Amino acid sequence: MLSVENIDVYRGRTHVLRQVDIHVKHGEIIALIGANGAGKTTTLRTISGLLHPAKGKILYAAGKGKRQIEISSLPPEQIVSTGVSHCPEGRGVFSQLSVKENLLVGAYLRKDNKIEQDIQSIYEMFPILEERSTQAAGNLSGGEQMMLALGRSLMSRPKLLILDEPSLGLAPLVIETIFNKLKKINTEGVTILIVEQNAVMALELSHRAYVLETGRVTLFGRSADLTLNPEVQKAYLGGE
Amino acid sequence: MTHKKHLLHVVDLVKRFGGLVAVSDYSLTLEQGELVGLIGPNGAGKTTVFNLLSGVLKSSSGNFFFNSQNITKFSPAQTARVGIARTFQNIRLFEDLSVLDNIKVAFHMHHGKGFLNTIFHTKKFRQTEKEITQKAMEFAELMNLTELIHEPAKKLPYGDQRRVEIARALATNPKLLLLDEPAAGMNPQETAELMRTIKEIHAKQDMTILIVEHDMRLVMNLCQRLQVLNQGQLLAQGTPEEIQNSPEVIKAYLGSPKENPHAIC
Amino acid sequence: MDFGYIAQQLANGLILGSMYALVAIGFSMIYGIVRLINFAHGDIVMIGAFTTLVLMETAGLPFPLVAFFVLLTGCGMGILIERISFRPMRGAPQVTGFIASLGISIMLQNLGILTLSAQPRNFSFPSYMQRILNLGPVSFRVVDVVIILTAFFLMVALIFLVQKTKLGIAMRATAENIDVARLMGIDINKTIMATFAIGSGLAAIAGLMWGGKFGQIDPLMGYVPGLKSFVAAVIGGVGSIPGAILGAFILGLSEVLFVGLLPPIYSSYRDAFVFGVLIIILIAMPNGLLGKDIGDKA
Amino acid sequence: MESNRPRYCLGLLIMFMVVFSLGIERTANDYILAIVSFTGINIILAVSLNVTNGFAGLFSLGHPAFMAIGGYTTALLTFSMEKKPLFLPDLPQWLIPVHLPFFPALLVGGCFAALVAQIVGISVLRLKGHYLAVATMGFLIIVQVLLNNANSITRGPLGLNGLEEFTNVSWVAGWVVVTIYTCWKIKFSSLGRSMLAVKEDSMAANSLGVDLFYTRNFALTVGAFFAGVAGGLWGHLITAVTPGSFSLIMSFNIIVMVVVGGTGSITGSVTAAIIFTLAIECFRPLEENFGIYGVGEIVISLVLILILIFKPSGMFGTGEPKFVTGKYKQLSPTNGK
Amino acid sequence: MKKCFITIGLFFMSLPLATPCFSAEPIKIGALYSLTGGMSSIDTPSLRGAELAVKIINKNGGLLDGRMIELISVDAKTDQKAAAIGAKKLLSNGVIAGIGHSDPSFVLPSAPLFQKKGIPFVTSGATLPTLPMMIGDCLFMVPFGDDDQSFAIADYSFKSLGVKNVAIWTDNSMDFTKTLSKFYKQRMTELGAKIVLEDFFMMGDKDFSAQIARLKNVSPQPDAVFISSIPNEAGLTTKQLRENGLTLPIVSGDGFDTELIVTVPGKELANDVYFSTHTYRADPRPEVIQFIADYEKEYGVPPENAFAPLGYDAIALIADAITRAGSATPKALKESLAKTMGFKAVTGEISYTRPSRVPVKGVSIISVKKGEYNVEEIWFPTTK
Q: Hey, of B88, B211, B216, B259, which one would you mutate to test binding to chain A, going by the most A CBs within 10 A of its CB?
């Protein structure tokens, strides 16, 4: 579905990603793990078009059997229209917009008449959002904001959902709720690419995972295998 | 007063942003010459602690003392003057200035604002300038930057920029050095080199250093003592070994494993 | 100083305020979305006024049609200016855009003098607009009512647009966080262009009314409304549309009352007063009366 | 550390100025002399605004206000004693016997402007970015209004005229050298470095012990001093000062010079001031021969916008070009003693 | 880059120098007007008038046995600096006389430069009566002084309109308007009238509602309002006063001599307005009729305001003086100009007989009734 092929990305003069190669198949949950500054967020921003690779390319196909297109030079709005939805780091809810408006922005490119219906289903998924639908999103708690951000990302009916650190700064109970929803979303046919600091949870959730270290993919494989790999722990906790 | 003998003594520091408690009841004592690490997952409040200690942010409550002086309400410039220097997580160099000039800025507070001296190009001015250049060169050499001194800071690669930032902080002649993720974005060789340099600074100048860092290899190998922050609260303290084996810390870092926790440890 | 006098002054301030508001809204919108102080905004007022003149006197079009075309011209100018000058500068330091807008303003003024001559032109609305109405001690004209109603209608329409429509939500989203807005599929170029178009359209309509109310226009007329609406926008909090409206009314009223209630000789100090207030507001409440904290972006 | 090139350049500059001003005063006609003098004044203005705007990053639109303060002060101080009762019948008593020769009057004018800058700085320097620009613009307008209304001292809108024509190419050349020298010294001193540091990253500079307010206020004051002096020179060149002259347009013109030359670059400001002043004069024949007045302004605005789009850092960026600074002599810390 | 600029610069600068010489050496006259910026609406017509005069003189064979007049025009940009540079440029070009400016603030930086070189400068529009004293014997005024026009309208309003209580509105941002009010006030007080209200506005103001409201509330109610403004505010104040139901006579000086006082308020409201001005508008003298016809033929529009004939007169005055002197040297011209007696200019007869060297010149009092201009009387100053 998504092939990130040997991309090199610079931010300013800094070489952030070197030869990153990631492949995502339909229906998978892929986790991208690694320490801070490893280049996880940069990878996601490159996939969704906010950054452009200096070398390498990114190919994407919206569905099984659909034609693969190269998206590495497209602007983000066009990439969104192909079915990629990126839930950014730090949630990025529009704090001055109401909860409902945030959801509507998520459906910005849709022209069908089922938007209202989808909003209802998001409300069903996170009832707290319905209660607060007219409040400014900035007044929501961190967990509620995350739910909103996730709901907003789903509003575009994505084929591929990209999540950047959904657990950041959240209470464990909330994290668990969110991760359960992610599982459910995945079973409904949405492919997920997730960047997560919380490695254990990420590995538990995902089918396969890539470990990034200083802009390079150092390890990848089935999540169950990686969980047992001592290298993973080392990447996080150091030690020799 | 117990804080009398310590270099830095932090008592129950609290920082709130609106409703969010970023740091709650943080305490720390640092003795002269210690090298301590402050770790924790993203968003734990480590940088906030640094911002409080360096005067960039004002604390909501709590106090901290430096050499028995209450510096809780000091501005960053005042904090720098009493001898606390810092680096920034997202490098904040003066990008258009050369490496040498970046370091020279740090001498400003010690050496004259003498405006008339400057304009009339007095002997004193020339001497000070010479002295500043001299010392700046020394710090550049210490951080292995001699080759690069005339390059504009923005043209340097990431790792070099980090080193410039450290050199610049050292040039303020601090008693306490706060390093905010010095190894972020460095490759393993660079990190190893940085580790050596920090050790050297620590040993040679008997500098007290507090490091926030994600690279555990670096922290574990470097620090004598570690503090772990999670969600704004102090989770654990102790030697690197103790921390590495603390189940709470592992949980905070790697997440809460529901099954099979032993597979990881 | 009886009640009638004060009531009249208040009414005058209200009329002046609603004209400032039309200009200030566009100013504030543009600032809100791209953080640009667009000094050329006032010159769109001038362009609007001259377009009205040309359409009414040369082409002899009926009034509503004229207003429509003036609106279109304003939108077009806004898009043109954004496209050829501000878009290539996006991402540069804020003052870059500010200086550029000063440059555009000087360019438009000189082009105006060159092509239209510096002579003030008379500008007359149909005579039914000039009729005088009396409401108790307060007298005003039909055109004043039209101005207030139009300004009110456009403000409501604009607030509706910004609050309720898809474009409005996109505009607010873009103003808050460009990157995330793009991730939602919003074409920020189009959104920014739309903002410039709407803001400039309003300014052009303000030009039409300015001409209609005062009956005289010239190529340098944009300077004052530009400057005043800018002050109004800052008082209300740049970036906030209700703020711009509030600021405009406060400014309009205080200008009229400053001149009207103090001894006459103080009128010459009016601009010093206006800018003194501006500086005090900037220092005391940097986000204006209704503005939101835009933190480091400011 | 640095090469001796700047010192040679300064020497060369002084020599050039001496030869140039002596030479041109003998040969050229009044028109050329006036243009040369205005070019010099523009250099002073651009270089001094560069201290405020370029070094310390304070985007000030108030430069003409400081010019006006300096210009009026100088004019009042040098006003001929015989003409005073005739031209300024309402002058306050204490001001009537005050009289100074040109040079001290210029200094007093500059110092007074600097003093006002100190006071203004206390209130507006907490503002950032274009909020500061707006506040300084307000200051400019307030100064204009006050000059317009303080009839007894300033003669209101008519302004002070009939000033002695003290300013000539030599005076201007002298001040150009002083301005460039001072600003250069500031730039390459601890003070200048801290200004540049404050501009680039105020928080980092503050954390290194740089006092933000002191540094900013100092930059504003130095700029104001030279603006005041330039105002004095200006007034005694055209023999009149009026409130209308010190306008937003003038502010815009000076900023154009700074931006085109490169904010922070002294060489840039000097070059841009020369090009700008000459360019305006160059457009005159074009305008006059074809009757298209205003084309000069249009073209200059256009060029400005193009520069902002394609080379936002200006001709020389923040730095000084190599032909002025020379190459660095490499020296290691050991042999520097 | 720099070289390129300099080359282009030198090229342009050399253009005017390279104008080919005619058979006889032309007589160079410099014109200094603000053709851009705030003054341009007043100054541009003056230049057009002057250019017209030059064209007509040259068509009729020039002066002094076929020497053509060459008018060198420089833009003063509504800026003192540009005015001074412009004056120096003209002087370097070897002009034998300069004309220009409609406001003393621009005469003051430029005319002294002419004075210093002993070259006469004729201001076509600046009416400050102290100008010749301030600048010296090289300055000549085409128009009357502000004192004369203020006295004229004061006399008229007191004697003919019967004004006993008067309100005075002054544009406080210009010297011209302040001077005008000062003299009007002086004369009215001398005559025994009472100033019931003094109010102020600033150039560029569009909204006079506060002043109007105050005028309505003043007691005793004035019999007339004197508005001292330049043309830009003339129409606006008239319109707004009338629209607010104030029908009292409006009196003013030559700042009101503009079509705007009729076109802006409309014919109905342009009523009961009286102003003193150059004896030009609605004047049946042949010079005036001829001038208007020529102007319309040349530019396709009638003269924009009284500054057009003033510019014309400045050239005509110089041409007359040159003819009388029989020489085109500055010195001869200056002497000849000073002896001008009864020169029939479009804007009235000019004689420099006063010690103040402000011309003794008729002042028209013009009334506007329902949009129609009418000359009420011609006022002559007493020669002091």
A: B216
- pLDDT for residue E181: 92
Which of B117, B144, B172 is the endpoint of a domain?
B172
Q: CA E156 to CA E151: how far, in whole Å?
A: 8
Residue A9 CA to residue A18 CA, distance in Å, equals: 7
Contact D31 E91 (CB under 8 A): yes
Which residues, 6 or more positions from C19, have their beta carbon under 8 angstroms from its beta carbon?
C147, C151, C206, C209, C210, C213, C225, C252
Distance CA E77, CA D238 (A): 15
- Out of E12, E81, E174, name the one closest to residue D245 (CB): E81
> Residues of chain B with pLDDT > 90: what percent?
1
Domain coverage including residue B143: 92-172
Please count the residues of chain C: 298
CB B125 within 8 A of CB D321: no
Q: CB-based contact (8 Å) between A218 and chain B?
A: no
If you measure CA to CA, which chain E residue comes closest to D42?
E81
pTM of the model: 0.86
pLDDT in tens, C175-184: 888 889 988 8
**The 3-state secondary structure of E256-313, one letter per residue:** HCECHHHHCCCCCCCCCEEEEEECCCCCCCHHHHHHHHHHHHHHCCCCCECHHHHHHH
Kindly state whether residue B57 falls inside one of the protein's structural domains: no
pLDDT given at position A238 = 47
- The answer to whether residues C79 and C196 touch, using CB atoms and an 8 Å cutoff, is yes
Q: What pLDDT, in 10s, does the model give residues D202-253?
A: 888 888 888 888 889 999 999 999 999 999 999 998 888 888 889 888 898 8
Q: Tell me, yes or no, if D35 comes closer than 8 A to chain E by beta carbon.
A: yes
Nearest CA in chain D to B140: D333
Q: Is D312 helix (H, G, I), strand (E, B) or coil?
A: coil
* Chain segment D251-290, per-residue pLDDT in tens: 988 988 888 888 888 888 999 999 888 888 888 887 777 7
**Does 3.40.50.10420 match the CATH number of domain E147-280+364-379?**
no
Same domain (yes/no): B183, B162? no
Q: Does C94 touch chain D (CB under 8 A)?
A: yes
Q: How far is E18 from chain D (nearest CA, A)?
A: 11
Domain A2-87+158-236 is found in CATH 3.40.50.10750: no
Residue B52, H or E segment: helix B46-53
Q: How much is the CA Rg of chain B, to the nearest whole Å?
A: 20
CATH architecture for the domain at E3-144+283-361: 3-Layer(aba) Sandwich (3.40)
**Distance (Å, rounded) from C-alpha D40 to C-alpha E36?**
24
Tell me, yes or no, if C194 comes closer than 8 A to chain A by beta carbon. Answer: no
Interface contact C98, partner E, CB < 8 A: no
